[in-house]
Amino acid sequence: MAQQKKAFCSAKALQNLKKDNIFVQKLEKWRRNKDYISTGKKSDGSVDTGTAPNQRLADILREGISSSGETAELNEFILGIGYVLSKVKKDVSELMTEYLPPSIQDSLKPLLGSTVIIGMLELFKQWKEIELANENKEIFSREEFEILRTIELVRKYFLIGAKYKDWKTPLREWQKQDEEQEEAIKTYLVSKGIFSNIKKEKWFIFYDPLNQWKCVSMISSEDFLNGKNIPANMCYEAEDVEIVTLNIDDSSEKKVKALLASRKKGYMSTIGRMLRNKELNPEFLPDRYGIRLAYFSLEDMKRGEEFVQKKLWEITEGVKNVPSLNKFSAKNLIIESQFAFIDGKYREIQHLPVEHLYNICNSIAPENHTLYHARWYAAKNGLFSQLFPKELFGINWNKKKVQEQIFSYIKQRFEERNKKFKPAPPSSAELASF
Question: What is the pLDDT, as a whole number, of residue 414?
Answer without folding.
Answer: 97
